[in-house]
Structure formats: C-alpha cells, structure tokens
C-alpha cells in the first residue's frame, strides 16, 4: 500500500513538474525585438525621435506648448511583464506628466488599466510617481510614491507584472505595489481583456504639480523624456500553447516571494505618500473599497 502510494505520488510529482515546465515555457515567451519594432507612435510623431543609446534602442518623447507625444505597443497582451527604462525631464518639469501604462480597448465602462504617471515638479523638487489600477471599469485606486533617487539623473527600470494572481509595479526590481486577484471576494481583476502598453508625455498643468498651483514654464520647452530597453515577456497563443488566460490563478508560481514581501514593506515605510485605502476623508468604514480590507 505504502509503495503504491509512493509510486503514484512520484508520478503525480513528475506530472506536476511537466505541467509547471510547460506553463513556464508558455509564460516566458520573450520577444527578441526592441522598442523600434515593438511600438508605434500615435501622436506627436514629429516631435519624437528614435536613436541608439549605446547598445540600447531608445525613444525620446517631447512636449511643447502645442502638443505632447505618445506611443503604444503594436501587440496586445493578456498577462505580461513589461520592463522599460525611463529617464525623466530634468530641471523644471512642473505641469508635465510622463507615463507608462497598459489599457484595454473596448467600452470604457468595463475597461482595465494599470497606470504609472510621473508628475513633474519645479527644479530641485521631487517627482511624484502616481499609480492607479482599473478593473472592469472601476478605478479610484490611487497610490503615490516618492522615489528614493533622482529619476532625472539617469535611467531607471519601471516594471508592470500582470499575471492571473497579482499585479505588481516595480521600480529597479523593487516591488512598490501589489494588487491581488480577489475576484472570489467580489473585487474586480483584469482577467480577460488584452491590454496594450502606452507611453506618453503631456501637460496637465491644471493639476499635476502641487495640486495645480505651479504651472508649466513654457520658456523651458521642449521638454524631453527618454525610454529605452523596452522588454516585454508575455503569453502568445501558438500551436500547443494554451492561451495564458486559461492558466489557473492558484498556481503557486504566482505567489509572492520573500524579497517581494519585504520590498513592499520597505516601500510602505519609506516611499508611499498617498494610499487611497488610508484616505479617511474619501472613505469611511462603509464605503472603503473591499480590497482595502483584504490585503
Ligand atoms: C513637488 O514638490 C513639493 C515640495 O517638495 C511636494 O510637496 C510635491 O509633492 C512635489 N510633487 C508634485 C507632483 O507636486
Ligand atoms: C527581459 O525580461 C525578462 C523577464 O524578466 C528577462 O528574463 C530578460 O533577461 C530580459 N531581457 C533583457 C534583454 O533585458
Ligand atoms: C459613510 O459615507 C457615506 C457616503 O459619504 C455616508 O452616506 C455615510 O453616512 C457614512 N457612514 C458613516 C458611518 O459615517
């Protein structure tokens, strides 16, 4: 009996291993192409330029008083990891917003979106990294962070990890935000609408900097922000590979590791400056979003 059990559990183990291997192979389907091939400009093309920054394919977006600029990925992804290096406008960037985000197409009322928006500031004052997550059209999940370095002095890596169990936002590999799939508790989570990546540089001088008190100094224009090493790891439907949306969200592959958990704690202690879950002016015990009481 014991031998039989042992034999069948070994078999089970190897089956599980095979399943995990196949799954990883499906998940890590890496594109070889860089930013030149992966993205297209959708507005302000005349004021943007592609260039080689050493060995890296790079893109400069610019903004003047007439218009900003914006790119999007050619592909749509259902679950993805996006890493991109960004160098923000240096000097006086008040009123400007530089973004990297993913968004689904289709009706706004049910759209999904994962946002990183860098809110500019006057010379020497810190940028704010503003984040938000929409699922099935429900957003209002703002969290803001103070970066622990000067994001204008050099490139830093910003990542969005979206898998069936978590949405993670990372800065230089450090997790700053986790949004867990709590669908079974009635909280929306993006699970079926493919999203594209967008990056943009635009003006929001009526609200971006110090609540809109500081306007853009247009004599400093054009404002330029740089993107390079756009690296996207995503699931592609292909022969023999299940569409990744079919993967079970309970796979332990998606569990947060110890480093991620301690990064998130470090960020709570050192970097977060606004969290909708702790906004007592907006919410009370009856109106607080469900996920705030779960994570
Ligand atoms: C700009 O700097 C001020 C003063 O340090 C700070 O309060 C504010 O949060 C910074 N960021 C933005 C986007 O206003
Ligand atoms: C792209 O990201 C994947 C997943 O994190 C990583 O394994 C790979 O090394 C990265 N590629 C480059 C060129 O940085
Ligand atoms: C919570 O806020 C809602 C909407 O603002 C309000 O109607 C309700 O009375 C508040 N409840 C408590 C317990 O303060």
From TrEMBL:
Contains at least one intrachain disulfide bond essential for its enzymatic activity. Pfam families: Glyco_hydro_16 (PF00722), XET_C (PF06955). The active site is at 113 (nucleophile), 117 (proton donor). Its EC number is 2.4.1.207. Belongs to the glycosyl hydrolase 16 family. The lineage of its organism: Eukaryota, Viridiplantae, Streptophyta, Embryophyta, Tracheophyta. Glycans are attached at residue 121. Keywords: Apoplast, Cell wall, Cell wall biogenesis/degradation, Disulfide bond, Glycoprotein, Glycosidase, Hydrolase, Secreted, Signal, Transferase. It is an enzyme of class 2 (transferase). Residues 1-33 form the signal peptide. One of its GO terms (molecular function) is hydrolase activity, hydrolyzing O-glycosyl compounds. This is Xyloglucan endotransglucosylase/hydrolase. Residues 21-227 form the GH16 domain. It is found in: Secreted, Cell wall; Secreted, Extracellular space, Apoplast. It comes from the Eukaryota. PROSITE patterns: GH16_1, GH16_2. InterPro entries: Beta-glucanase-like, Beta-glucanase/XTH, Beta_glucanase, ConA-like_dom_sf, GH16_AS, XET_C, XTH. One of its GO terms (cellular component) is apoplast. Catalyzes xyloglucan endohydrolysis (XEH) and/or endotransglycosylation (XET). Cleaves and religates xyloglucan polymers, an essential constituent of the primary cell wall, and thereby participates in cell wall construction of growing tissues. The keyword Endoplasmic reticulum does not apply.
